[in-house]
Amino acid sequence: MPRPSWKGYLKLSLVSCGVALYTASSSSERVSFNTLNRKTGNRLKQSLVDSVSGEPVDTADRVKGYQVAKGQYVMVEDSDLEALRIESTKTLEIETFVPAAEIDEIYLDSPYYLAPDGKMAEEAFAVIREAMVRKKVAGIGRVVLSRRERLLMLQPRGPGMLATTLRYPYEVRQDAEYFAGIGERKLAPAMLDIAQEIIGRMSGHFEPDSFADRYEEAVTAMLQAKQAGRSFVVPETAEPGNVVDIMDALKLSLQAGVDRRPRAPSKKAADTRTADAAEPARKNTARKTAARKAAR
Predict the structure, then answer these.
(1) pLDDT digits (tens, 9 = 90+) for 191-249
(2) For 248-290, how does the pLDDT look when each residue is reduced to its tens digit (9 = 90+)?
């Protein structure tokens, strides 16, 4: 079982239960790089130095500082931050319930899984989750993560819940300044009809497994080529430009395009996918090991 990012209590009015919050996404499987000395091939280490004296500063002498004026700082000790124990440090209290569709996607930040912490918490957790399912709502609460209070949207997900941190309004840039220069256009019905036909032919269902990380695959191939002493040539791709005659481009797209809708998987394909899904850890480990070997 992975280690939780946070443990505390989920509270709905006077009902509460122990819960644990787990990170739902990870970038640890991506290929990563170290910075080396080109002349020696040795790995470089970073060191924090005093901006005035240029001398390295020991860990024990490092402290956080908030700049109040140029060159003037208020020192903040870790103990000062630890003392700020607000209620959401240990309690995730649901403050309100809203239709999930009303939450603008731009406010969505990081996903977590919320699960009951122990058998004693399962009944109360299930009552809250099932009531949300029946009312078709998402809960909004607050929790302290990495010493900052974050808004959290709770949604039922199977036997547990999906908890997504939400950005505060001051963290979101408003779209008006970016879209202000976009003018109104009167579009020809014929062009819209063709565009809709193209979209229809390319429409299907979202299947995450059908999308490969092409950049990650290219990086891995490049590293393997370097390790083997082979040359690695990246094929050039033409950069598209603005289309001059949109109607002609739409018609050509319709003539040249193929039906790209995902097909219903055959039983054999489904069985294969099930077998593959049964051992994701082995595949991820093998891919990561290959990348690490290539990077040596």
Answers:
(1) 899 888 888 888 888 888 887 877 788 888 888 888 888 888 877 777 777 766 778 88
(2) 888 888 887 655 555 544 444 444 443 444 444 445 555 555 5
| 110 and 219 co-located in one domain | no
Quote the tokens at residue 248. 């002609």
Cβ atoms within 10 Å, residue 164? 21
Q: 93 has which bridge partners?
A: 11
Q: Which amino acid is at 80?
A: D
Final residue belonging to a domain, choices 171, 198, 232: 171
What is the span of the domain harbouring residue 243? 189-295
**Total domain count for the chain?**
2
Where residue 162 sits, what CATH number does that domain have?
A: 2.40.290.10
Looking at the DSSP bridge assignments, the partners of residue 154 are 139, 163
Per the domain annotation, does 55 fall within a domain? no
Long-range pairs for 104-109: beta carbons < 8 A, 24 or more residues apart: 106/167, 106/172, 107/166, 107/167, 107/172, 108/153, 108/164, 108/166, 108/167, 109/150, 109/164, 109/165, 109/166, 109/167
Q: Is residue 161 located within the same domain as residue 14?
A: yes
Question: Is this model's pTM higher than 0.90 or not?
Answer: no
